[in-house]
Amino acid sequence: MSVVGYGYAVWAPLIWIVTLVVIGVMVLIWRSRGQKSYKKGTAQTDIFLSGARVPPEEQRHVKSENIYWGFFESLKELYGAMMKPHTGIVNDYLLWLVAILAITILILVLAG
Amino acid sequence: MDFLVTHAPILIVALPLVAAFVIPLIGIGRAGDRGRNIFSLVILGLIVFLVAILAENVHAVGIRVYTFGATAPELALPHGYMVPVRIIFEVDSMSIFMGIIVTTVALAALIYSLHFMKGQTGQARFYSLMFLLYAAMMGLAFTGDMFNLFVFLEIASIAGAGLAAYRTNMADAVEGGFKYIVISAISALLVLFAIGILYAQYNVLNIAALAYYMQYTPLDMLALGLLAGAFVIKLAGAPLHMWAPDTYTVAPAGSTPMILAASYMSMYALYRVTFTMYGGQIDTTAIGWIVIIVGVLSMFIGVMMAVHQTDIKRMMAYHAISQGGYMLLGVGVGLAVLADPVALANYGRDAMNGGIFHIINHVFYKSLLFMTAEAIFFRIGTRDTNKMGGLARNMKWTTAFYVIGALAISGIPPFNGFASKLLIYETVLKFSPVLSVIAMFVSLVTLASFAKVFYAAFTGPELPAFREVREVPKSMIIGMSILAACIIFLGLFPGLVVDNIVAPATDALINHTAYVNAVMGAVP
User: Fold this and answer.
1) Most buried by CB count within 10 Å: which residue of A31, B364, B426, B443?
2) Mutation target among B493, B498, B502, B506 for the A interface, most CBs of A within 10 A
3) pLDDT (tens digit, 9 = 90+) per residue, B356-389?
4) How many domains are there within chain B?
């Protein structure tokens, strides 16, 4: 059994694996005792939207850019500030390098 | 076998260098593509063997010094000389640690590329550049003098730029390659300028000799600033990271992990310069805090930009920047408390263990993730996650590898990312709880961004456009399997890796006198 003892926490990955396997077996057993009349490919598995028309697959899937909309909307100002330096222009990247070099050298000389 | 062990440092660099020039000749002959592939695999297989025996030797015996042109390779100082004058390779635990990472990634990338690059024109050039980049990275890891460090850095930059711009039919690929070469050229010039300053003062180029004679004058501070700036931009540390997504996104799948590894070779160079060459002379608290601040900025900016992306590879590129921040944070904390023996013993050494362990973990899972992204691109021709959906139905292996990579990068047990991140959280908490909380927040947002892509790309209804999509070819699956197996192994047996590979690397950095004495030991 491999254990990483850091002095503050003990981590035994193999215990985790054994636990997950035991839980997995229990889930499979419970699942096997489920509804026997379930049949894939019949009306049982059709999508039901309270009688409304089911849109085609392309329109049903939530696009990636719409996920976490609220998060991005509330952090609009932060993102506005963060996007500004990411111009895509290599000249700007080199200006950043010059600025950071100057600051680093100043700190090193002052710190001694 | 002794011959191989003795000459392994030079063979590991020379073999891929020669292979890089021979490959185009094999490709045009009767052997063709198949012959070239077999040749590449044989050469890399030999190199893997050499790296393994060298690693075993370094961990068993100690630092291995290889002097070019000497009567015996271990003879660093010629008779009657007080300074080393020949080109020297000096392989300690930190060097071989980086060598193991680069070699494993190169093996996976090569096998992955066998089918990914099939049908492409200019394949001979691709494999040539891959071997050239590999040779340069191993040379960087093993070199014992600053000028050769510059030379190998330049070779890696040129090869990397060629690989990034490989798909010349895509405008953004050429742009990414151009940005990479401009950034690399400027940073290499800064390194050369710093080397000039050091040589002008001390008349030596050997790293151990420079460390021996280092006085830490204002000129040396200037040189350190130049070197730090050059290496930070090469490793894509914030706020000098902006070129990285433009380059990593466009490089073909097999080469992205190699270019990523090249960035971490710059991180190795930064550590070598800071801990070994300037060891014992610098104000470690101030410089440690500079490294920590760069690390925290990288973590935060990287992950916040990543979660916003809709290009799957660009998202992963920003995550690479973010994860680099973890490494800098861990090692920065160790550097900041280097002068305090109690803090170093209490949490500093373990923080460095976490930071260095994170290098190997990250290179493996990030390479795997880049390969899964390119597997998707290989089959559906787009990297835009807005156009994806339901891919898990037909690309089960790719989905499984993506999940492994995503859970690993998010620090979920029992994968490798958890082990190194736990080390970093716990040790950084003792140094500064705020930094630890930022690190945990970044992990949460990392998980959120990969969950977003998993939902958008892999789950959902089967889209009509992707009904005929199949799983990727076997060689690509094998390439990804190698990395997935490494991730699972490192996650299940982190103690084994930390005790046998990572801790010696940390010791090699902290105990810089061993590195110096291995070359300068005979000087009275």
Assistant:
1) B364
2) B493
3) 999 999 999 999 999 999 999 999 999 999 989 8
4) 1
